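Render this sequence as a predicted structure.
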Amino acid sequence: MGSLSNLPLQYPPTRRDDSVVDDYHGVSIPDPYRWLEDPDEEEVKDFVEKQVTLTESVLHTCDTRELLRNEITKLFDHPRYETPFKRGNRYFYFHNTGLQAQNVLYVQDDVEGSAEVLLDPNALSEDGTVALSISAVSEDAKFLAYGVSASGSDWVTIKVMRIDDKSTEPDTLSWVKFSSISWTHDNKGFFYSRYPAPKEGEHLDAGTETNINLNHEVCYHFLGTDQSQDILCWKDPENPKWLYQAGVTDDGKYVLLYIEEDCDPVNKLYYCELSTLSNGLEGFRAGKELLPFMKLVDNFEARYQAVANDGTEFTFLTNKEAPKYKLVRVDLNEPNTWTDVIEEDEKDVLESAYAVNGDQIIVTYLSDVKYVAQIRDLKTGQLLHTLPIDIGTIYGISGRREDSEIFISFTSFLTPGIVYRCNLGTEFPELKIFREIVVPGFDRAGFQVNQVFVSSKDGTKIPIFIVSKKNIPLDGSHPALLYGYGGFNINITPSFSVSRIVLTRHLGVIYCLANIRGGGEYGEEWHKAGSLSKKQNCFDDFLSAAEYLISSGHTQARKLCIEGGSNGGLLIAACINQRPDLFGCALAHVGVMDMLRFHKFTIGHAWCSDYGCSDNEEQFRWLIKYSPLHNVKRPWEVHPDQPCQYPSTMLLTADHDDRVVPLHSFKLLATMQHVLCRSVENSPQTNPIIARIDRKAGHGAGRPTQKMIDEAADRYSFMAKMLGVSWMD
């Protein structure tokens, strides 16, 4: 199975400390690689260097590596556009000419007129590793507040630019994380979220630290002042793990405070009427008191997201007693009376709602993982028009209540991207192509997309998209790549990928996307069916998808590669532990691998809503059953009558991943290499177990184009060699 017999791998020795043993509710659990948790230790840096050298020695033998890099680079080199948005009388949009490291922000006075560069993040670093992570234009379109992050870290520094002459203001806001930027309508400043600055002596290398993130707070920054003068608008020391976002309503009269406990789609919702502040926000500059927020929803029962308000009458998107979501209305003066505007659909998930064109809303539904877009009446919820969207994903909607013109961005497996422009001021609004993203040399006519529904272990039907060349014989001869996520109510919907098109065209790969439980593709019940005590459903769903691809003749076990990132990295690692015989190759990106300690690092505590926490005895018993780190076994000893080995495995992580810190992948890598490869004489494990460890990169966001291309070439050339696949022109 993709043997490297001509290159016997010499795995570097890694120290085991058998003295580290934890007691979990009376169960002793050894953690011999605890020392790998400290990224600053020289021994950890040495471990990383040796693993990088080992991986490079393997990749050096992968003959499709340069072919993939060249072809992906060639196809990547095409202009890309994001959804334009309007502020004041100006239009703004992000654009990449093709191989630029980061997308560039443009401004224009007329949507059909010439545009000029407003902010080019590529000028902020020589290697493209400084990225623009958040941005917001003031209501009068005179100022841009923007947040930059370095090397893929979640930490953000906010700066301010004057739009007319593109001069940078002195304002600099540090220690910003998990934040939006929301301007007040007087254009004097904005709300943002941050953590307290580290105390002296604490780890200050933002992005590589593992310290737990506590005591989030909301501040207001006045333009032209030092951060030390910002107003502290909200904090709650009694609940140090909670997260806060503040947003000014479209009419500028209220600021809404969204309070989240963890990653569940539930939040508290408070509001403050800005006009009732006797001296405005200035009155809080010297004071110690927080803004006088009123409590509209003061429990964690459901999610509430504001769509519109007319004075005190607010419309919200919510899953309150509606797991597939609905639209509701409440008057702040009568906070106990809520009425439905759009009732929950029996089958489809109400995905989003935006107030546009006065009293209209554009809503999107997810119907069997395919988007539906409708124009409805804001007051009554009545359907006015259904917009003709192809099978795929709406990934951007831009428009406000004062706008009769909206922009909608669409993509699919075979559509690189279309930005539609739609005039709602006409009797029958029609979508007109405003910009279309064209990939040179790509012709969708040579490919096909099918969706099938496969029975999981308990009979639940799991949707799978299958993308391949047209009219291929289902004789089991094809390599296949199966991708999944399955967590945190996140939907994985059809999208275009240059690297996947290259794999399909030149390596004959069939690409498959399994929409397993744990995601939000069918609403909150679907999410809950793959979390906490039911997390095993995610793995069962994914394994059933793999078995279907084999039984239906799309591929065979030794030609099947599985891939996933973050929670999906956990998915891949758990599945190769449970069924090592089912796959030829596994690519696990930035995965949560130590299910007993994840909550102790950075923002890991927020994931307990999906996973549970080992501090709780019942939840510990769920976690220990599938935790990748604690379930690596020698399959030839477990099933001596049907001996097999682990598939060729590449764990991918990055030194500045401060979301899922790299220690997860390091500890699993050391464990797999020890159990499978090093501690057994003449081990049957000949398939390589390696890691690709990126430098100056993080969890994924903000990664420069060249790093994305290099990583795709590395992981897919590894896959090609391991599956025994050769290049086809």
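Summary. The radius of gyration is 26 Å. Residues 1-6 have pLDDT under 50 and may be disordered.
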